[in-house]
Design a protein that fits this description.
four-stranded antiparallel beta sheet, 2 domains, 6 helices, 49% helix, 184 residues, alpha+beta, CRO Repressor
Length: 184
């Protein structure tokens, strides 16, 4: 009579291999987790901010690396910790370079985009940014404003959020410097 479970080709059962593998996941996983917490605390708040495209890539790479450290016995803890430290270091370097050289920031992150000016939605820009009127209205409502006419500007920020500036709080508009389409 044959086996009940088909041979997976891995030489072991898919439900349990050995206690030493379980112990490795527990020990290496706990060490990797502690290292991630330490790395995130030392790499600064930018690592945990709202995500632009570059930050998303780093976050996904962080998660993938952590999962590999947890589950792959072919990756030693020191190799995994080195990979995590490298990701933190690269994030730090990119954050420094983009703050020193605005050209690199524009190359790596999307800039802000004006979606509404003086109560009037900029429909062509909204189509380009794939934002519909309902989403714009939702952002305005979230600020407690009931009328688009009472909004001076809505800006789609580089992290995908919408900033709403009411007409009464517009002031001199200096917060809109650097946003294309804003004439002062």
């Amino acid at each position: 009579m044959g086996t009940i479970l088909p041979d997976t080709g891995y030489g072991s059962c898919m439900w349990f291999d050995s206690w030493s593998d379980v112990l490795r996941v527990v020990l290496v996983g706990a060490a990797a987790y502690a290292f991630v917490v330490l790395a995130l605390r030392t790499s600064g708040k930018r690592t945990l901010t709202k995500l632009n495209a570059f930050d998303l890539v780093v976050t996904v790479a962080f998660g993938s690396t952590l999962a590999t450290i947890f589950l792959s016995s072919e990756v030693a803890w020191v190799e995994g910790a080195t990979a995590l430290a490298l990701l933190c270091a690269l994030q730090y370097v990119v954050a420094k370079v983009t703050s020193w050289f605005p050209v690199t920031r524009r190359a790596l992150t999307a800039g802000p985009t004006l979606l509404l000016r003086d109560g009037e939605p900029l429909m062509d820009t909204m189509r380009q940014q794939r934002v519909n009127l309902d989403e714009l209205r939702q952002a305005v409502r979230a600020t407690g404003t009931g009328s688009l006419a009472k909004v001076a500007a809505v800006v789609l920020e580089s992290d995908g959020t919408m900033s709403v500036i009411s007409s009464e709080k517009m002031g001199d508009g200096s917060a809109l410097e650097g946003v294309p389409q804003v004439a002062r």
